[in-house]
Request: fold
Amino acid sequence: MKNLLDCDRGEKVKVSKLNAAYDLKQRLISFGIMKDAELEVLAQAPRKKTIEVKVGKMRLALRSEEAAQIEVKKI
Amino acid sequence: MKASNEKIVCPITAKHIKVALVGQPNVGKSMLINSVSNAHLHVGNFSGVTVDKTEVLFDYKDYKFTVVDLPGTYAFTDYTIEERVTHNYLCAEEYDIIINVMDSTNLEKNLQLTSELLTMSKKLVIALNMSDEADKEGIEVNAQYMSELLNIPCVKVSAAAKTGIEELIETVVKKFEGEKQEPKLIFSEAVEEEIENIVSYLQKHNFEAVNSYRNIAINLLKENKKTYEKLHEEPIWTELQPIVIEASKHIELHHNTDDIKEAFAEEYAAFNRGIVAEVVKQTTIKSEAKTLTEKIDALLIHPIFGIPIFLFFMWSLFQLTFTLGNIPMDWIDGFFTWLGTTIAPTISNDDVRSLVVDGIIGGVGAVVLFTPNIIILFIGIALLETTGYMSRVAFLLDGFFHKFGLHGQSFIPLVTGFGCSIPAYMSARILKNDRDRLLTLFIIGFMSCGARLPVYVLFTGAFFAQSMAGNVLFGIYISGAILGLIFAKILKITAFKGVDEPFVMEMPKYRLPTFKLIWHTVLTQTIMYLKKAGTFIAGAAMIIWFLSNYPHNTNLDKIYSAKIEKSVSVKQKALLENQLAEAQLGESYLGRLGKFTQPIVAPLGFDWKMNVALQAGLAAKEVVVSTLGVLYSIGGDVDESSKSLANNIRQNIPFASAVAFIIVIMIYLPCLAATTVFAKEAGSWKYAFYLFVFTSVVAYSLAFIGYRVTLMLM
Reply:
């Protein structure tokens, strides 16, 4: 399964599942990252330590560990 | 209702409306509050936490408004302090009406918080802020239709352009006077069915409740604690519980999840998408060209140039803080010296005069002295935050800092720590997560503050050649920072262990902050600093003053004054006066404590004088040099450049002891003022105690190692 960390810059994907633990899941949901949400990878910090994604009209920074817990599929 | 009660109690005054202002971060709440009123500021804060709510009072027609500006929150997940403060306030405090501020350009995201507010059964008005910006972006919001769909009044406003403000206030008044109405929140068929089940059960049993049955049903399904607590007491609970459990199971099954909150989030999202599809029209098709934010980001979070650019900004802020800040500092210092010398002659009693001049004026003066630095730093931080750059910094630096268990945003407080620990502790507020913030707070002290510089200069000057002293000084600073990172890691895997806190953060649009907004933020924070720190520190300074002045041995005074009278040269007189000061300090509680605890520090090679200097240094590092001056009898009025003090130190203190001394200065508590601020920022004095134990143990152990190693090498 592909996760958000595997995506390249500029790639547009759809969330298929959140594999995160309870707290992180709530956090992600409060930012609109939930099943069927569409994401676009905007930028990556050096060595992909943090990535920036677009959710709706919002830009969001995620640490690599968190991004790896978001399962996605290509649109 | 509360307001009408008040009217009866107090018929002369107008009606009071207490408004809770709620919104997600970056929707322009603070700016709206400025536009609504001519901000008659009333600064308040919640005890124990660092996040402050601001109350603004203003009059409109016959109404007296109190607007409580609550911290921005994405949802009620209680994840950050802001969320907790806002959630607790909305659930537990008394207020009449909620204004939900929204960013018109991003309704779908903003509606997520709104849908949670809709289930609260409170009067609600929606302010569609940034309507001017939405116009520019070609986004058309049909506020009328939205009001009908949600059954909640929605008003288009622009805090920046000051439009719609009057209409908003009018709507609030109307809503306040009118009856509470049930908001329309429609779920998917599956959920609606379950809600209907619970509602019909409640109807069948004629359950008595303030809130509507529908509201109770939704809150039960959402696992709202308060609703559960209330119904738990009721006899119908035994029958109701299985129905609720069954309903939850069905909903979870329907959403293919084992988490009811996730299911509801998806429900809300679907509802919100529906609302947005109905009321928002994108008139001009968004061009594929890059937005301004994207263009700026291409430079500022560039993989190569991003960090150097940031370092340059930080360097500039630093330069400003400690060069520009020094100018008014001299004035303030001058003012308090003048105040002391002016007041002194008017008090005849020696003890009272010393208490007022040295204790109170000196202590308060020391606090006020830092105000210019703090104001400049707050302006800088407010600029970084309101422009949206702060999030980019965290984005860039999180990778490096995360290795040491810190957070990307820890960088700013840590760097500030090199200047002064007080603003550093205060700037740690930018860390939204408790554990990240506490860890950063514990590490800040390792960054040597400006006040420790005189001690370093004195000792390096005494033991090293001029050419080497600078390098040694630099080495001290660097090793402090490295130690800080190492101890961050150690604390992270011991005291603050547990799963890593997630790093999920919004990168807001870049915005030019208005002068008024910056002023508002900085003023509020500065007043808080003066109020909090001022009262604490004035008290603490008086205690230290007392300890170092009492008991006063009048016999010593007599012996020395006789000697001083007999002496002929000015030099001899000064020497005798210093000997008197040394003898008196030795007799004081502080001196006795120094002598008494000397055996503890003996393994580090300290005599009682060094011990006293270190203990006095707990009050402020500036005191260390002057105390050493008194104790090594060359006069209390010395500074680090004093040649004779350096000579005396070289002659009286062995090199190994000096190394241990410097290590202790590097690590132990910065000063009393900073410690009080630390306790405030950490949220409890318990943490100040932990900090004291932590720094003391680390300082002692490392100083011991330093002492032994130096002895072996020499």
Remarks:
- The first strand of chain A starts at residue 12 and ends at 18.
